Amino acid sequence: MKLSWIDIRTVGSAKQAILQEALHARVDGIVADRPDDLAGLPPTVQKILFPQGGALPEDFGAADIVVVDPAKHGEPAELAARHPQIEFGRFVEITDAATLEDACRSGRTEKWSVLLFRDPTKIPLEIVIAAAAAAEGSLITVAADAEEAAIIFGVLELGSDGVMMAPSRVGDATALKAAARTTVPDLDLVELEITATAHVGMGERACVDTATYFRQDEGILVGSHSKGMILCVSETHPLPYMPTRPFRVNAGAIHSYTLAADERTSYLSELKAGSKVTAVDIHGRTRLVTVGRVKIETRPLLSVDAVAPDGRTANLILQDDWHVRVLGPGGTVLNSTELKPGDKVLGYLPLQDRHVGYPINEFCLEK
């Protein structure tokens, strides 16, 4: 999880509403320029004092971290020697090569580096992230909004350790916290035993083309029911008559569920360019990938039923063709048209039902 800091120094009359929303969203830090604004905040949130003027207050109050501009306030190391109970961070505004080098140096040496990049390009941030990759300190980058925050979290794959953002309205703190969730939980996959297969006629199936390369032991989970999904392999394995498409999963019929972001499910028919889906490997390790397009075409369909050792079941309807495949234990690649009762496949069996994609505990019968 990346760090989310909400800057309340310039939010004006909406300060209290934004502050309450930020606490409710469980942001990681509140940034203020007056110690009074940090008083009374719960211990679950970091309290960051970031003075805007030229002098530091005599009393830092409840602050856990004090961010300073060395040109105005002095060096963090010198301040830390005088105030050992406080962590100090360095603010760097990057406008040219010299200040970029200052930011790289700060990233390598300071516990906290708060970075403001004046130009819209993210290349300078890439350079700082690379320069500080082996350091123990944290890079906190200023973002204008949650959309920019999401980009900052993904720069150079590693991303900034955190983002500081001044909300313009209520709702922005929640959006920042959502952008900070750059990972999805790993899953406990189970071995399912095939019980039956059947040709079910024509229908529409979806190929999910993503903007990333899948690994050979990786795909997406797909199922007709929200409580049972089977791991469909990507087209990373060679096939006769056609080249590999290592960015694609021939996923299944359009009514099927797949896992998206924020523990939600999406119908395959709902996915479009820019959607997020959860890629899963045979060990249950996950990552979010971006959909580039969804290719829906009419094809013959095959229904596959499977059962878990505890009796729970899963169903998958996918294209009825030999080259459409699923994954079995150990990464075994299984052609769907050759599946037979007794074969083992990998699957996922969520415990909760779904309402508009969200997990919910309620009575729901799927057949």
Encode the helix/strand succession as letters.
EHEHEEHHEHEHEHEHEEEEEEEEEEEEEE
Q: Tell the overall outline.
A: elongated
Q: State mean pLDDT (0 to 100 scale).
A: 92
Using only C-alpha atoms, the radius of gyration works out to 25 Å
- Beta-strand portion reads 35-45%
Order of strands in the sheet with the most strands?
Answer: 1-2-3-4-5-6-7-8
* Main sheet record: 8 strands, parallel, barrel
Protein structure class:
alpha/beta
Name the helicity range: 10-25%
Number of separate helices: 8
Q: Which regions are unreliable across 5 or more consecutive residues at pLDDT < 50? A: none
Helix and strand arrangement:
Elements: E1 3-7, H1 15-24, E2 29-32, H2 35-38, E3 46-49, E4 65-68, H3 70-73, H4 76-82, E5 87-94, H5 97-109, E6 112-117, H6 123-131, E7 138-143, H7 146-154, E8 162-165, H8 172-180, E9 190-210, E10 218-225, E11 228-233, E12 248-253, E13 257-259, E14 265-267, E15 276-281, E16 286-307, E17 313-319, E18 325-327, E19 333-335, E20 344-348, E21 353-355, E22 358-360
Parallel strand pairs: 1-2, 1-8, 2-3, 3-4, 4-5, 5-6, 6-7, 7-8
Antiparallel strand pairs: 9-12, 9-16, 9-20, 10-11, 10-13, 10-15, 11-20, 13-14, 15-16, 16-17, 18-19, 21-22
Helix pairs in contact: 5-6, 7-8
